[in-house]
Design brief:
Length: about 270
Amino acid sequence: MTKEFLASAAFLGAALVSARWAWWRRTTPGLRVLVYHKIGTPPAGSKLKDLWVTPEKFRSQVAWLNAHGYVTVLFSDLLKAHRGEKPLPEKAVLITFDDGYENNYSHAYKILRELGAKGNIFVVYNTIGKVNLWHNPKTEPWVNMADLAMLREMRESGVIEFGSHTMNHPNLEKLTLEDAAWELTESKKQLEAALGAEMSAFAYPYGAGAYSPAVRASALKAGYVLDFSFKQGKTPWPWNPDSGPIDRLFIKRGEGNLDLRLHLERGASRLF
């Protein structure tokens, strides 16, 4: 092989590796909202391994946020900022978790508390203390959900706040509007009664309905002030609800601190 060929091959390889990460994108303004699901190790047979982040990696990511001047905030902080009552810190980050797994309590909550950070969990009311019943256990293993005592401990600590993720985790676009409205209003009512706190925030299961005018109107009518999609990106802040829901930055299992930085700065980490 000639030196020219080797040099060309090396350049091409470097370009491909470099292109995989979104470092070349421009820094984008907007609200930084991270979304996690499960903190731990996926069970055998899981096809949704990207939804799992190890405790070690999560700890490293939270420590990285602290070391680089980011300030983790709660739903109540975001609500005050949205209402013009108190501005967000310059480098505010909202850490969110979807569903309400037991491992959010056993791993994420304890790591956040130890590192002086904050987090927020969207809870599926009818699975509290049970398992993630929206999955078919023949195709995706069930995982334990946090029970009410765990949720209350996290709330009382001031480390974690909660929002709704419906009663049963359905695809809201596949329901009648009447059934979707029930999922939205009943989960808000039940969670507020169980946790003794306002549920101002809502996340659409699977992201479904976030951009459906009728479904989103039902969410806002139910009394949610902050609604979150599963679309990748950052939403301009101050936020205009008429422009759509708040987008988030999905942190996957294989992503490290470089990915975290790119999510926060560029609104995306990798192309593939």
